[in-house]
Amino acid sequence: SDIGQFLALLPFTPNTWNVANQWLGEHDSEYWVRVNPNIYETTEDLGPAIDKFIDLGRVRLAIACLVKPLNNNGQLDEERSIRVLLSPRMEEGEHPDVYDILEIIKALQSNPDVDQETLFRVEWKYIQVLDRDEGASAKVLEDRLAQVPAFFCELVEFLYHPHSKPREEKTPSPQEEAIAMNIWRLLHGWKTPPGTQSDGTFSVPAFDSWVGEVTTICTDLDRLDVAMLHLGCVLFYAPPDPDGLWIHRAVAAFLNGKDAEKSRQGFSQQVTNSRGVHWIDPTGTPERELAKTYRDK
């Protein structure tokens, strides 16, 4: 309406919001769908505006309002943040800033009071933007992989067909494709080795138990080879041994096992991939230094 359009031109402050409510009543969305605010026009609580934006699917603006106090004083409205991140509704053209999303997720991850199952859902939904280069990772998902063998096996079963059976020729649904891509991203970005505890320490009994359970389950699923390949990749990030050896001796003993060829293959593969994209120094100095590091190890 003309009234909504007029109000959208006024300063973005609680006074304007109140006038919109008085003039438009239950139709005040005519203001909220039109406003393209400068959120720095007000120093007051943006909570009511965030609620309106969430209800209307204006996720980009809701996230921008949440990030403002986070950047100013480190304060985050956890409840509203979770609501907007998990909102199933998003209006066309509403593409939130990825940096803002990552800042909110990192703040949620650093708060021990945030429900871990809820954070699990947030990380799963946004795993495609969780980038370690930006200081963000799927912490809860990776911890679940490292501590719950059945979860790891469930993902392996979904992503890979049985080793001894021919691949079925079928077209996956869009939902199946999305799930498979999320699993692929999670497994290929996984850097929390099994045996890692919630406090960051490494438990040999937990590692041995994880390997044993995964071996049993994935043997039954006929997917043991690919499971052990992924295990080898993540063991590249195993901690050093308390006695000073560059790799934990329990992990070294496992990798030296006669049946661990697939894991050795995965470990070797991760050695190569761990550098990521990089420029080649014409002098070759970094390559020689890296070669010396691995010779010493």
Shape: elongated
Order of helices and strands: HHHHHHHHHHHHHHHH
**Major beta-sheet overview:** none
* SS class: mainly alpha
The helix count comes to: 16
Which segments are poorly predicted (pLDDT under 50) over 5 or more consecutive residues?
none
Give the integer mean of the pLDDT values. 92
Give the N-to-C terminal Cα separation: 71 Å
Helix content: 55-70%
Strand content: under 5%
CA gyration radius, whole angstroms: 25 Å
User: What's the count of strands?
Assistant: 0
Blueprint (SSEs and pairs):
Elements: H1 2-8, H2 14-24, H3 29-32, H4 47-55, H5 59-73, H6 78-85, H7 98-109, H8 116-125, H9 139-147, H10 149-159, H11 174-189, H12 204-220, H13 224-234, H14 249-255, H15 261-273, H16 285-296
Task: Outline the structure in words.
With 297 residues, the protein is mainly alpha-helical. It contains 16 helices and no strands. The protein has helices spanning 2-8, 14-24, 29-32, 47-55, 59-73, 78-85, 98-109, 116-125, 139-147, 149-159, 174-189, 204-220, 224-234, 249-255, 261-273, 285-296. Helix 5 (59-73) packs antiparallel against helix 6 (78-85), helix 10 packs parallel to helix 12 and helix 12 packs antiparallel against helix 13. It is elongated and about 80 Å long.
